[in-house]
Design a protein that fits this description.
By secondary structure, this protein is an alpha+beta fold. The protein has three helices and three strands. It has a single domain, classed as Histidine-containing Protein, Chain: A (2-Layer Sandwich). Helix content is 41%, strand content 26%.
Length: 86
């Protein structure tokens, strides 16, 4: 599946998660636009042995989702304090 995504220059699979069970594929994560989501689904359907594809991805313009995730992580990291044993 990953090789199929690498061959498709129309998608950036960096934020696309793939799980396969009994020939059924579930795509999760973030895509930049509807076209990228459609391309990822089409790529998955081309792989031998795949009987169905479910898409549970979120359409998110470039950097907006990743930036929000990084800011949230930084905020959590700054708030947490190390636990010291007495």
């Amino acid at each position: 599946m990953e090789l199929e995504f690498k061959w498709d220059s129309d998608i950036d699979a960096t934020d696309i998660g793939v799980s396969v069970k009994n020939g059924a594929v579930t795509l999760t994560g973030f895509v930049k636009n509807f076209n990228e989501e459609w391309e990822a689904e089409s790529d998955a359907k081309r792989v031998a042995g795949i009987v169905g594809v479910a898409t549970d991805s979120e359409i998110c313009p470039p950097y907006s989702c990743r930036a929000a995730s990084r800011l949230a992580f930084k905020s959590i990291s700054l708030r947490s304090k190390p636990i010291r044993a007495n």
